[in-house]
């Protein structure tokens, strides 16, 4: 089967998905998922732990990723599935929000000191005056 990058031709305003990848991390071992097409906008990645399914729904103003997994083995105690990881890109402003308001961070870039951010619920990224909103 042909291996493809389901994100290759997606672009929202300034945010290009080109070069984006999917990853899993099982008990500290990180692996990149390799997708094969299985219908229009549907993809499948086979791993020793599970078979992962991905549906990419695109419109003029949004992208929705739907994912699922069929497990072949027990889910590891420490497991992380990252459906899309972007290569580095430049932004002017970032707002990250966790599940509760106390876990939010906002900053203008570039920053003078290194800071770590993690937006697990909602992120707003601004580049060249246009804001892209990412939710989980």
- Rg over C-alpha atoms, rounded to the nearest angstrom: 16 Å
- What integer is the average pLDDT? 88
N-C termini distance: 30 Å
> How would a crystallographer describe the biggest sheet?
4 strands, antiparallel
By secondary-structure content and strand pairing, the structural class works out as mainly beta
Beta strand %: over 45%
Count of helices?
Answer: 0
List keywords for this structure.
single chain; 136 residues; four-stranded antiparallel β-sheet; 13 strands; 50% strand
Report on the structure:
The two termini are 30 Å apart. A hairpin with a 7-residue loop joins strand 10 and strand 11. The protein is an all-beta fold and 136 residues long. The chain is built from no helices and 13 strands. The chain has a four-stranded antiparallel beta sheet, with no helix packed on it. The protein has a four-stranded antiparallel beta sheet with strand order 11-10-12-13, with no helix packed on it. It has strands at 11-12, 15-16, 21-26, 29-33, 36-37, 42-46, 50-58, 63-71, 79-85, 93-97, 105-108, 122-127, 130-135.
Write the layout of secondary structure elements.
Layout: E1 11-12, E2 15-16, E3 21-26, E4 29-33, E5 36-37, E6 42-46, E7 50-58, E8 63-71, E9 79-85, E10 93-97, E11 105-108, E12 122-127, E13 130-135
Antiparallel strand pairs: 1-2, 3-4, 3-9, 5-6, 6-7, 7-8, 10-11, 10-12, 12-13
């Amino acid at each position: 089967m042909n291996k493809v990058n389901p994100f290759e031709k997606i672009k929202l305003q300034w945010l290009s998905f080109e070069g984006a990848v999917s990853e899993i991390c099982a008990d500290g071992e990180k692996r990149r998922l390799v997708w094969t097409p299985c219908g229009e906008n549907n993809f499948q990645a086979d791993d020793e732990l599970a078979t992962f399914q991905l549906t990419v729904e695109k419109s003029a103003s949004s992208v929705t990723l739907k994912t699922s997994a069929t497990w072949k083995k027990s889910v590891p105690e420490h497991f992380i599935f990252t459906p899309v990881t972007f290569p580095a890109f430049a932004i002017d402003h970032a707002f990250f929000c966790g599940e509760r308001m106390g876990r939010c961070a906002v900053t203008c870039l570039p920053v003078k000191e290194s800071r770590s951010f993690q937006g697990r619920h909602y992120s707003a990224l601004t580049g060249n005056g246009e804001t892209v909103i990412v939710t989980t």
